[in-house]
Amino acid sequence: MINQPKRMMKYFFYGIILLSFADLGSCKKSSADTINNNYSTVTGKWNYAEYYMGDGVSVINWQPVTPGKFIDLEANGTFSSNLAPFNTVVNFQLVDSAHIKFYEPSAQGSHLYFYSLSKNELQLSPAAPVCIEGCAQKFTR
C-alpha cells in the first residue's frame, strides 16, 4: 500500500510533463505564419495619406500630403510607386512581423523600414537613423 501513492505521484508528474509539452506546441504561431499572414494583409495599392517628421521640440502631428502618390506591393514581392524615395524600389520582402526591406534595382542597395498594420492603414518608418527625432509615412487603402 505504501507504493500506491508513489506510483500515483509518478503518473501525475508524467501527465503534467506531457500537458506542458502539448501546450507549448499548440498555442504559438510561428514567425513564418505571421509573415505569411502579413503578406496577404500588406499587399495591394496604398495611397499616401500623411507624414510626420519630428523636430524634437513640438508634439508629433501628422501632416497632410498632396493626393495622388501611392505605393503598390504585389504578392510576388514586386513593388512600384510614384513617391520618393520609394519610386526607385523594385522589390520588397517582409523580414519579420515588424520589418520590411525595400530593394533597389540590381546592386544599388536596400532599405530597411519598420512597418505596422492596422485595419486599412500602413505606417512605414526608416529603421536606420535617417530622422534623428523620428519620421514616418502613413498610407491608407
What fraction, in percent, of the residue positions are helical? 25-40%
- What is the CA-CA span between the terminal residues? 72 Å
- Specify the CATH architecture: Beta Barrel
The total count of helices amounts to 2
List segments where confidence is low: pLDDT < 50 over at least 5 consecutive residues. Answer: 12-30
Task: Explain briefly what this protein structure is.
This protein is of the alpha+beta class. The chain is 26% helix and 35% strand. The chain contains 2 helices and 9 strands; from the N terminus they run ααβββββββββ.
Structural account:
This protein is α+β, with helices and mostly antiparallel strands and 141 residues long. The chain has one domain: Lipocalin, CATH 2.40.128. 26% of the residues lie in helices and 35% in strands. It has helices at 3-27, 31-42, and strands spanning 44-53, 63-64, 70-73, 79-81, 91-94, 99-103, 110-118, 121-126, 135-140. Strands 1, 2, 3, 4, 5, 6, 7, 8 and 9 form a nine-stranded antiparallel β-sheet that branches. Strand 3 and strand 4 (79-81) form a beta hairpin. The chain is globular, with a radius of gyration of 24 Å. Residues 12-30 have low confidence and may be disordered.
